[in-house]
Amino acid sequence: MDPIRILHLSTERTWRGGEQQIAYLIESSREKGIEVTVAARPGSAFEQWCNDQHVPAFPVAFANGLDLGSALAIKRICRKINASLVHIHSGKGLSIAYLSVLMGMKAPLVVHRRVDFPIKESGFSLAKYNHNSVKRIICVSQAIADMVSRSVRFPERVKTVYSGIDFARFNEVSKSYYLHDELGLDHSIHLVANVSAVAPHKDYHTFINVAAKVLSERRDVCFLIVGDGELLQEMKARVKNLRIEDNVIFTGFRDDIPLLLREIDIFLLTSETEGLGTTIIDAMYNAIPVVATSAGGIPELVENEKTGFLSEIRDVGGLAESVNKLLDNNTLAKNMGELARIKSLHFSKEKMASRVIEIYKELLGEDPNNHFHPKKRGTR
Question: CATH classification of 168-344 is 1.10.579.10, yes or no?
Answer without folding.
Answer: no
